[in-house]
Amino acid sequence: MVSSSENFDRLFPEAAQTWDLDRLYADLEAVSIKPLKPFEKACLRGLLCRYRPGQLAFKLAWTSGAIRVELNKGLYRYIEDLTEQPPNTLRWEKISEWLEAKGYRVVQQVDRSVPGAEPITQGRPRNMADWGEAPEVPVFFGRTAELTNLENWILRDNCRVTAIWGMGGIGKTALSVKLVEKIHRKFEYLIWRSLRNAQPIQPFLSDILRFISDGKEADFTLSYLIDTCKKHRCLIVLDDYETIMRDGELVGPYRPGYEAYAELLERLGGERHQSCAIVISREQPKEIAVLQGEDSPVRSLKLGGMDRQAARSLLTARGFTGSEGGLEDLIQQYRGNPSALRIVATTIRELFNGNVSDFLKQTTLALGDILRNLLYQQFERLSELEKDVLYWLALKRRPVSLSELREDMRLHDSVSELIDALESLRWRSLIEQAIDKGTVMFVLEPVVMKYVNKKFVEEACKEVDEIVKSSSLSKLNLLSRHALVEDKASDTIRAVQIRLVLKPIKDRLGVTLRQVGKSTDLLNEQLAACHQSKSATLSDIADSLDYMEANLTLLGLWV
Known about the structure:
By secondary structure, the protein is of the alpha/beta class. Helix content is 52%, strand content 8%. Strands 3-5-6-7-4-8 form a six-stranded parallel beta sheet, with helices on both faces. Strands 9-11-10 form a three-stranded antiparallel beta sheet. The model is unreliable at 108-125 and 536-543 (pLDDT under 50).
């Protein structure tokens, strides 16, 4: 925790470029009738530099709760008194506006005798930054090549839009923070916004343009933003872009009320200006896919896992010496995913006493709650066809060609739909491609395969519960459209399918039968009677009847 006066005084010195701090300190002390603490002065400077309370807490090594309590019982109340505002109405975003209205912002004087000097202006000097929701990234490993490429695109090639996309937890935001820290002083204004709790386009435009225009009000339209990007060199970062895209459909459509963001990307990428927008997303926006190119001012970086050296550095920072056996295999198994490696490093230390080899002998990957939640969020955004494709790839557990996937999924008349789904999954960074003897093959990386396999088993177990409780097959879905164990697969893959898919579903069947007091024989009799009386039930899914028969036979239910 920052505690000494000297340490506090070193924080946020850039506030002095824009604000009359000595007069502000004196006036606040006059209304509070006591000296300002070094802590309060540091917080005031940070807030004037547009740091949020949570970011101040990180800088000061305090908890967010503690710093909010201190601000609410002291500094916020003094500012309300000084600016003659009602008690308990101050929000941190209003501090600059209220104090500027009272005349505490510095007037920047420019010597007109200097060639190229700008006129006297009331307001911010250049290189102003509003970091918004950008996180602190105190520890960062590798990504040297990616940082160099991105910096060259933006500063050397003057790219107008740059997208950084990849699966959740791969490190997109951390990379972007380090990139922006490196280049933002080449721009007049930096504005970072997360779209996680996104506003429709008009409030969003008003928010960022009010910052650039020193709080002045105007008709803040998209055209106004483009004109601003022509007059000023602005760096605009849009994080969590996928959250304004529609769930349950292929990649591309926007949520209702957010369609204008498509025009935002199209105009920023298509019209001449001197600014740059960085788009961070789990999914590649369609507008960027259309506009991007090696010679285009729109570029796109799909972020994969860290290289081996960076991954080893991460693991070393998590308590490993770097000489443990199995580290290379561990990095490969998790494909250099930094979130996955952080999680599994903790698991290995706490449950395996740091023995990587012992951990690798286990038969399943460890995901952890954080990574599982990231994959859940991404999986729930998928269309039903995309989910089906992932289920099949997880069940098959090997690279699969388009023709084989089409045959297994019984999509003889819907090839174009399958191709669209595969392309959408690629844009979501959920499938990998490989070339085998000139044929494109599709496969899941281990972390995604682990999650999708678990999700399939959970949903199949729900169907088994329904069979037992209703004595009917009418609500079968996954069990009627997927093969739990493949006849044509190798013995090795069949053994894995039996252990990781069939066995847990069969175990669930036994548990549910015991819970309701039924025997397998009784359930089979009930299913047979139901089938005879409602034979039309299965006629609707005749194309997939072979999957149902095979699966139920494996479960001991088909008669």
